[in-house]
Amino acid sequence: MKKSNLWQKLILFLMVLGMLAVWPVCILRTEEKQTMEHDVYEVTGEMPQGSVFTQYFRAEESVLNAFELVIDYDPALPAEGIFQIAILNDKNEMIYDGLFPYYLVKDYTFFRLETYNLRLKKGDIYHYRLTNQDITENLPHIAYTRKSQPDGEGYQRMLLNDTEIEGEAFARFEWKRPYDFLSILMMWSCLGLGGFFLWEILEQWKNRTNRMKKGEKNV
User: Fold this and answer.
1) What is the maximal distance between C-alpha atoms in the chain?
2) How far apart are CA 219 and CA 207, in angstroms?
3) Gyration radius from the chain CA atoms
4) Digit-coded pLDDT (tens) for 27-58
5) pTM above 0.85?
6) Between 20 and 30 A from 113 (CA), which of 74, 130, 185, 206?
7) Complete DSSP assignment for the chain
8) From the centroid of its chain, how far is CA 20?
């Protein structure tokens, strides 16, 4: 098999692979942020060592790329110690677990936690747990709001240790959702045009090479 034919088949393979990655496999997705915040806020009580803050949430999409929390403390004092963060499903099974140091958290600012395209089941209820591993001074608080949500949905459960708190923690969820129908068609069109453009270039190069070889033979 000629080398040019191999390149053409590779181009066709990559073009089809790219189309499948957009849909229906949906490896390629677009980012969508969901924010739970309001100008009116409160903070929980202190979280002594060993305390656990729990917030339930609904999976808006099937891929969670990252989420952000707001932790409040006294910025004039040292922030030393470790937090544990975990995400659990409705069966209380841990599907994500990580640690991060207190000093990285800026007071009353969204702190980003990467979940690296964590796969969830869209529409199901999950919860994350923030645990004070060993912080003994300048104890943290969690910022939350009691403001009703614009979509009219009620708050998901929020607890500090075993005490339920009315409201919802300030958080930003970074979801990855599949492209909509028009975006899929546009991306397929771009991939198709790009693939056939490269195919045509190789085809012209192959024809030119063949004509040159015929010319050499005639000479």
Assistant:
1) 94
2) 19
3) 27
4) 566 778 888 766 678 999 999 999 999 999 99
5) no
6) 74
7) --HHHHHHHHHHHHHHHHHHHHTTS--S-EEEEEEE--SS-EE-----TT-EEEEEEE-SSSEEEEEEEEEE--TTS---SEEEEEEE-TT--EEEEEEEEGGGPPTTSEEEEEEEEEE--TT-EEEEEEEESS--SS--EEEEE-SPPTT-PPPPPEEETTEE-SSEE-EEEEEEEPPPHHHHHHHHHHHHHHHHHHHHHHHHHHHHHHHHHHHHHH-
8) 20
Contacts of 22 (CB under 8 A, 6+ apart): 28, 179, 184, 187, 188, 191
Distance CA 80, CA 135 (A): 6
Cis peptide before 101 (omega within 30 of 0): no
Distance CA 113, CA 203 (A): 49
CA distance 196 to 202: 10
What is the rounded CA–CA span in Å between residue 55 and residue 5? 57
| Number of residues that this document lists for the chain | 219
